[in-house]
Structures are given as C-alpha cells and as structure tokens.
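Hi all, long-time lurker, first post. I run a small reading group and we've been trying to get comfortable going from sequence to structure in the token notation. Rather than ask abstract questions, I figured I'd post a concrete chain and ask someone more experienced to write out its structure so we can walk through it together at our next meeting. Sequence below, copied exactly:
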Amino acid sequence: MSSAPLKDLLASTSFRLSLVCAAVIVLAFALSGLGLWFVTRSAAEHAARERIGLEMQVLQNEIRDEGMSAAIAAIQSRQNAPGALEYQLTGPDGGALAGNLELEAPATGWSLIYLPSAGAKPGPDLVVFAQPVAGGGSLVIAEDLERTEALRYAILRTLFWIAVAALLLSVTAGYLAARGALRQMDGVFATMERVGAGDLAARAPVRSARRKSDIDVLGLRINAMLARIDGLVGNLRRVSTGVAHELRTPLTHVRQQLDEVVAANTLDAARASARTAQFRIDDMMRTFAAMLRLAEIEAGAAQARFVQVELGALIERVADAYRPDIESGGGSLVIDAPVQARIQGDPDLLAQALANLLDNAMAHGPAAAEIAVRLRMNGGAIRIAVEDRGPGVPAAERTRILEPFVRLDRSRNTAGAGLGLSIVSAVARLHGAQLSLGDAQPGLCVELAWAPDAANPTERTSS
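-- Answer (accepted) --
Happy to help. Here is the structure in token form:
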C-alpha cells in the first residue's frame, strides 16, 4: 500500500495531537527555564550574602583588634586570589586605603548594584555590603554574580536543546503514528467501498494484538454491523424465496377455486368453491401477518414496550387459554412453575412465543398426550421449557428448523407456514434469552434460558 499523502498526514488527528503534545512539551521547558533562571539567581544572591557577611565580620574584628594596617594587609592579600571578593576600604576623609572596588559612597547596608560596562553593554550585578569601621571611614565588600551567570546560561542552553530534541521526537512520533493510523483507516475505507459496491462479505482489517487500538475497536464494531447487515439481507433473501414458494401453491389453489366458481352450474357449488377460496386467502393473510410480526420483532422496535414481566403469571395466563382445547382432545397440560421470576420484556411477545410453542406441541404430538410447561431457577438463571410427546426433531435439523418457512414435513401436509419457531427464536433474541431444542425422551423439549443477570428471581412455594 502506498504511503498516505503528506497533506492527509498533516490533517490527521494523530498528527495534530502530536503537535499539541509537542507544544505542551516546549511550553513546559520554557516555564522550567524561566523558573530555573529566577531560582538560580536567588540562590546565588543568597550564597553571596552569606559569604560577604562572614567576611565583613572577620575584617571588622581584625580592624578592632589589630588596627587599620592589619586590615589593609589582609585585603591586599585576599583580593587577588581566584574567586576572591571585591573590597573597598576608605579612611575618615573618604580616601581609598585598600581594595579593587571602585564605588562612589554606597549606602550603608545591603544593596544590589547594576553596573554598565564598556561598550554600553550591561555589566555584572554586584551584591554589596557597606559598614562603617572603627575610627572613621567605611568598609565595602561586594561579590560579582557574573561567575554564576555562566552556569545559569549553560543550564538554560542545555534545556533549550533538550526542548528542541523533544519537539523533533514528538513531531516524528506523531508523523509515524499518523501514517500507521492512516494505513489502518485506508483498510476501513476500502472495506466501505466494497460494501457500497455490494460486497456484504467484506470486513475491515483488525490486528490480532491483545491490546487493540481505537481503530481496531472501530473495525470490530464495523465488522459486527456488517455481519448483522449481511445476516439481515441473507434472511431477507431467504424470506423472499420462502414467501414465493409458500404462496405459489395457495395462489394456484385460489385460482382453481375461482375457476370453479365461474364454471359452477349451481349457486351452491359456486358458494362452496368461493368459501374454499376464502379459506385459502385467510391462510395467506395469516402467513403475511406472521411475517410482519417477525419483521417487527427482528427490528427491535418492541424494546420500547419492555416492562417487568412475572413469568409464572404469564405462563398461567397462556395455559388457561390453551387448556380447554388440549383437554378436549384427551390430552393434558401440566404447569410446573414453583418459582417467581421477573424479567424486563414485552409481555405480549413473550405470550406469543409461549403460544407458538404450545401450538407446535399440539400440532406434532399425539392428541391424548401430555404437554408440560416448566419454569425453573438455578443460581439466578431462569429457564422455561415446553415438552411434548411427539416424534421430536433430529439433532441435525434443530438449527435449521428455527429458520423461516422451514418444516420437517416435506409434503407440507401440516398446517402453518413454518414461521412459529422462527418467531420464538426472534423473541428470544430480542429478550436476551438462549433458545435451544432438545430431546424430551420421547418428544421435543424447547427451552428459553436467561442468564443470571437478566432478572432477580425469588423462590416461592408451589400451590
């Protein structure tokens, strides 16, 4: 892949963030240098004051104890030593007696004097301490801060070059990071172009590293979205094919019945054929209603109607509606729900899912057999199981049977369009439940299972 154009790199968020970081680093170094300037100056001045004060005390004692001549000799011996202080000793008449410092009557006490040097350039700062001496005159001791300036400037120059190096490293790191990010984004853009061209199997590249970048996370989310879209489109294709297949035979039958109406010799025969056509049309309308219901569930719009649902009461309500039909055929409906379990859900959709499972059990099980609905709780998990005593479903077909318009009855003699379990599966996904088909020995066991964090079930004694 060719490298990204420079203008794209400069405009990238990664590079701009690196520039911001570089600016912050430079500002931090500038503030550090400014702070260092003041701190070192204050420290040098403080050290000079301590040194001058001690020297002043020593010379004043020497003047008092040994006289002016001893002080003059001491100053002359010290002023030429490396790193020596600067002195000015004057007599009562103001004349200079010793020292190499030339100041015009500095004020008594501490002072900071800024001296201009030759060429109109600023000279060194002097920390000056002046005191009168015994017998008249004055002693002035000063220290030139120029010696500390060299160290300060060396430190500041070092900080400056470190700041330049940090700036270059930040910009370089930003450039490399931006280039890598743009390479990843090129893969995402290419994937979007392929999807736009109709390739729904395209997926964004994602690195396999354990700690993924933001772009990797974005790629994962895009891939999840594409997988969902691909599944929905594939489902739409299957449903469209199923609709065409399911409606071809009923429409053919309706056309035949209408032909019989037209060709009927008697009014009664015409009416009989018309009623048969009406029944066929009613079946198709129920199929369409089931398809619309399935589409609504898969779209997730029903989540806006979620409320707290007590599953035991819902099972009892649906069972009361089905019990007369089951018992009239010689069968029995057993409700085993000794726990009180609540989940967030749509009570109408949950009731329809349970009704579809009971319809399925009645359609495929013996008329005089038992149908059982069980509600269980285990470690906070909730399970609803519907068991019949029919032929069951082979293990190899249990996943396929959940797809729309799939029926194991190849001759399609069983009533229905094959959407009942598809609707149950969609309701389970909408409510975060796991749908599974198992063997009831004999018969089929269909189970809806919620994880422990889906609800807060509490035990109750069975009545």
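A couple of things your group might point at:
The longest helix spans residues 13-66.
The first strand starts at residue 86 and ends at 90.
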